[in-house]
Design brief:
By secondary structure, this protein is an alpha+beta fold. It is built from 2 helices and 5 strands; from the N terminus they run βαββαββ. The structure holds iron/sulfur cluster (2 copies).
Length: 64
């Protein structure tokens, strides 16, 4: 999971859809707990600003 802080609007939408509680909003920054992330991609779909991307074989891409 790759987080682009410059694109994030701190809406919190990604946090609410994560089934593993892997995302946390702290001081206007999304913290991604990589150890708890299963790369389901839900956060990349819900993010309206494209701030979260899945990394696939070294590349970052948004699902859908
Ligand atoms: S890819 Fe899935 S498990 Fe990982 S942070 Fe996003 S919603 Fe959570
Ligand atoms: S959904 Fe996108 S813009 Fe909203 S807090 Fe998450 S990463 Fe930031």
């Amino acid at each position: 999971m790759k987080f682009n802080i410059e694109k994030c609007g701190c809406c919190g939408a990604c946090i609410s859809v994560c089934p593993n509680n892997s995302l946390e909003l702290t001081e206007s920054i999304i913290f991604v707990n990589e150890d708890n992330c299963n790369d389901c991609g839900r956060c990349t779909i819900i993010c309206p600003l494209g701030a979260l991307l899945l990394e696939v074989e070294g590349n970052s891409q948004k699902i859908l």
